[in-house]
């Protein structure tokens, strides 16, 4: 049986090469992994079949598709797809089946990766399920046993022009998808699933890479849904649903003194459901030459999220053997806009920046976060005052408030107005400028109305509610105060 398989394998390669050479195939050559010895029964190891199919595809100059039919394929060791000597002008791995890891976590756990793509270009991975069966390794780690680190399910290194679409990753031993030293990568329409107690199972990890797009993904895992490491530039994250998990994190940064920065990152239309954090930037409290710059968090919805907005420059998980220095990571030009929903913590916005290098250029607009239907708090340490006159700060005016609402905690974010039901006026904070600069109020409800007042004036709270909603005024209005 083994000799006949070997003969058929060799025959398949020879025919594919001959037909490709004489142009007798269609525009795309198709290679079925079953013809290389893969078995869809989940019992016979198909590791070698996948490697052989890749090697054959790379020997062809055509556009090539490696096809994995429906079924369950046991892959017990790392499969390395290397592109250095690949001749194919573009290669597609089309998976209709499920790839499963071994029951013995040690077989795969000793590998760094399960499926690794190294130095590839013009490659597409479409469809399929990757079930690494990581739960036995997590149990080993939870019991404090001598366990291997575990394997990342899909890793792309030193690659460019790669598309990953329609993939399902289940129960990865470690990271689900990792992008390292890559450019022009598109990740779209994927699902990632692992329980919230699964350790270090980041959904998508990106570092030292540029021009990366992540669109329309659903991530449920035990660590960061998306982690953005040093050297990430020009990243677009659009339409992510996260939870359970630790949110979307830039960092952790500052592990090394010589570290590349993170810049030009946009995260928009994200939904967080009962996550440990929402939008987070985290760095270790030690010296570093790294930085974070030009970050945009746009249009996120929080559902019972702990710390929906968080900058933590004293990051030290477990609080053991923590560095005692100030973080050297410089954070500048970060915009939070359209962040709404509910916080599971009283402090919804926490900014704990470096004392040595305070955060600068932090701007907020259209923020509406509540804590169990009431007022949420903001905590800011080492956030520099704004110098840009267009900087906006946010305040929610409570119609049913019976006391003066103290917003001095977020004074560093910008100009603040205080609302009091007792006096039914909005009055300028004592810390505002006392000259006649004008502050514009924008009511973020339909219809939108604008008001202006100088720093010595006041405005009727009731008029805001009754003018915008004469019949059925809401319980609260979101007010943006903008210097002009």
What order do the helices and strands come in, and which of them pair?
Layout: H1 2-21, E1 28-32, E2 41-45, H2 47-58, E3 63-68, E4 72-74, E5 79-82, E6 90-95, E7 98-100, H3 105-109, E8 113-118, E9 121-126, E10 129-131, H4 135-142, E11 152-157, E12 160-165, E13 168-170, E14 177-180, E15 183-188, E16 191-193, E17 204-207, E18 210-220, E19 226-228, E20 233-242, E21 248-253, E22 262-268, E23 271-273, E24 279-283, E25 291-305, E26 309-312, E27 330-343, E28 347-352, E29 360-365, E30 368-371, E31 374-375, E32 377-381, E33 392-398, E34 417-420, E35 425-428, E36 438-443, E37 449-454, E38 458-460, H5 461-468, E39 476-483
Parallel strand pairs: 1-3, 2-4, 3-6, 4-7, 5-8, 6-9, 7-10, 8-11, 9-12, 10-13, 11-14, 12-15, 13-16, 14-17, 15-18, 16-18, 17-19, 18-20, 19-21, 20-22, 20-23, 21-24, 22-25, 23-25, 24-26, 25-27, 26-28, 27-29, 27-30, 28-32
Antiparallel strand pairs: 30-31, 33-39, 34-35, 35-38, 36-37, 36-39
Keywords, please?
484 residues; Pectate Lyase C-like; single chain; Pectin_lyase_fold/virulence; 45% strand; disordered N terminus; mainly beta; 11-stranded parallel β-sheet
Describe this protein's structure.
With 484 residues, this protein is mostly beta strands. The protein contains 5 helices and 39 strands. The protein folds into 3 domains: 1-222, Pectate Lyase C-like, CATH 2.160.20; 224-384, Pectate Lyase C-like, CATH 2.160.20; 389-484, no CATH class. It is 11% helix and 45% strand. It has a 21-stranded mixed beta sheet that branches. The longest helix is centred in the first third of the chain and has 20 residues, at 2-21. The model is unreliable at 1-5, 17-26, 386-462, 464-470 and 473-484 (pLDDT under 50). Residues 1-27 form the signal peptide. One of its GO terms (molecular function) is polygalacturonase activity. It is found in: Secreted, Cell wall.
């Amino acid at each position: 049986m083994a000799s006949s398989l070997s003969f058929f394998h060799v025959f398949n390669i020879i025919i594919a090469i001959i037909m490709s050479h004489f142009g007798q195939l269609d525009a795309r050559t198709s290679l079925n992994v079953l013809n290389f010895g893969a078995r869809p029964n989940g019992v016979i190891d198909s590791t070698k079949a996948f490697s052989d199919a890749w090697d054959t595809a790379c020997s062809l100059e055509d556009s090539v598709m490696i096809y994995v039919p429906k079924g369950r394929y046991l892959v017990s060791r790392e499969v390395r797809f290397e592109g250095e000597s690949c001749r194919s002008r573009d290669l597609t791995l089309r998976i209709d089946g499920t790839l499963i890891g071994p029951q013995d976590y040690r077989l795969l756990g000793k590998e760094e990766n399960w499926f690794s793509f190294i130095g590839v270009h013009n490659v597409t991975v479409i469809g399929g399920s990757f079930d690494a069966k990581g739960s036995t390794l997590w149990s080993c780690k939870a019991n404090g046993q001598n366990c291997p680190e575990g394997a990342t399910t899909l890793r792309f290194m030193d690659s460019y022009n790669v598309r990953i679409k329609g993939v399902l990753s289940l129960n990865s031993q470690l990271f689900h998808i990792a992008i390292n030293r890559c450019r022009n990568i598109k990740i779209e329409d994927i699902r990632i699933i692992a329980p919230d107690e699964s350790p270090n199972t980041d959904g998508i990890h990106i570092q030292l890479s540029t021009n990366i797009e992540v669109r329309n993904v659903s991530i449920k895992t035990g660590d960061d849904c998306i982690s953005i490491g040093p050297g990430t530039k020009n990243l677009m994250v659009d339409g992510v649903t996260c939870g359970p998990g630790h949110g979307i994190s830039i960092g952790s940064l500052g592990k090394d003194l010589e570290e590349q920065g993170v810049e030009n990152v946009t995260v928009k239309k994200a939904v967080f459901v009962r996550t440990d954090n929402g939008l987070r930037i985290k760095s270790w409290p030690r010296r570093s030459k790294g930085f974070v710059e030009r970050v945009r968090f746009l249009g996120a919805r929080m559902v019972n999220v702990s710390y929906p907005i968080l900058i933590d420059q004293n990051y030290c998980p477990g609080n053991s053997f923590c560095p005692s220095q100030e973080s050297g990571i410089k954070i500048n030009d970060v915009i939070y806009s359209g962040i709404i929903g509910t916080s599971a913590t009283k402090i919804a916005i926490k900014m704990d920046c470096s004392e040595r290098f305070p955060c600068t250029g932090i701007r907020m607009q259209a923020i509406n976060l509540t804590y169990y239907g009431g007022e949420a708090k903001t905590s800011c340490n080492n956030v520099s005052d704004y110098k840009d006159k267009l900087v906006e700060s946010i305040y929610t005016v409570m119609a049913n408030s019976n006391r003066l609402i103290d917003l001095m905690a977020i004074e560093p974010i910008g100009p603040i107005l205080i609302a009091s039901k007792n006096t039914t006026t909005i009055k300028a904070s004592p810390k505002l400028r006392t000259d006649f600069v004008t502050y514009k109020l924008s009511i973020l409800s339909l219809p939108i109305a604008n008001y202006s007042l100088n720093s010595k004036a006041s405005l009727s709270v009731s008029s805001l509610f009754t003018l915008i909603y004469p019949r059925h005024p809401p319980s609260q209005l979101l007010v943006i105060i903008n210097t002009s």
